Prior knowledge:
Blueprint: H1 3-7, H2 11-22, H3 34-51, E1 59-63, H4 71-77, E2 80-85, H5 88-97, E3 104-108, E4 122-127, H6 136-149, E5 150-161, H7 175-184, H8 196-205, E6 208-216, E7 219-226, H9 237-241
Helix pairs in contact: 3-4
Amino acid sequence: xxxxxxxxxxxxxxxxxxxxxxxxxxxxxxxxxxxxxxxxxxxxxxxxxxxxxxxxxxxxxxxxxxxxxxxxxxxxxxxxxxxxxxxxxxxxxxxxxxxxxxxxxxxxxxxxxxxxxxxxxxxxxxxxxxxxxxxxxxxxxxxxxxxxxxxxxxxxxxxxxxxxxxxxxxxxxxxxxxxxxxxxxxxxxxxxxxxxxxxxxxxxxxxxxxxxxxxxxxxxxxxxxxxxxxxxxxxxxxxxxx
Length: 242
Ligand SMILES: C[S@@+](CC[C@H](N)C(=O)[O-])C[C@H]1O[C@@H](n2cnc3c(N)ncnc32)[C@H](O)[C@@H]1O
């Protein structure tokens, strides 16, 4: 898709969306770098598609599909792709971005609940640049829901900023976030480190086995396999279904 198509949207909204999606990693005016950003995120999608061996037998879900740049690689390969997002604005953009793919569905969700997706119907789920913002509680609710929609043996890929390896004198991913935290606390959506050890521990209690983790600087890319239905403790059931 050409950049012109993007510009048919309100420019201000494009800027807001790009900044929300990619921050200032591509400079102060990311709306002027759409092709570069699209290409960079698409290449990330290609790596994930390769890692998860996505093929035309697979029904795939992308949690927090954002602009659909990463999702595109799955759309090119999978039988069906479900874009899931809490933001109608992002979904509207993604519908345009991925309009050429008839195998792609869009789901506006509230929070950690994918009611349009039936139990055990998805082969592969991935989520990029989303769980890096999540707290422990978000992991609980999202892992339960990912477990519900996955087939047994299905896989889930996500990324965390791994607090197990963070070093104050060399951190990359959260340096600016730590810097602005004091001034923005409670107001800004910041990157939130999560420990790989904690993820392994929590996911094992919710029916997953960690099958691969690769570390690149502060970021851990993690692949979990669903080995059983999540056993949800009684005290948590009312909250899960609320
Ligand atoms: C930083 S963007 C990442 C977009 C895309 N995955 C990528 O890697 O380029 C985060 C996206 O996740 C969505 N999001 C945030 N919290 C979410 C949640 N709890 N469940 C689903 N989507 C969420 C946002 O609306 C946004 O589209």
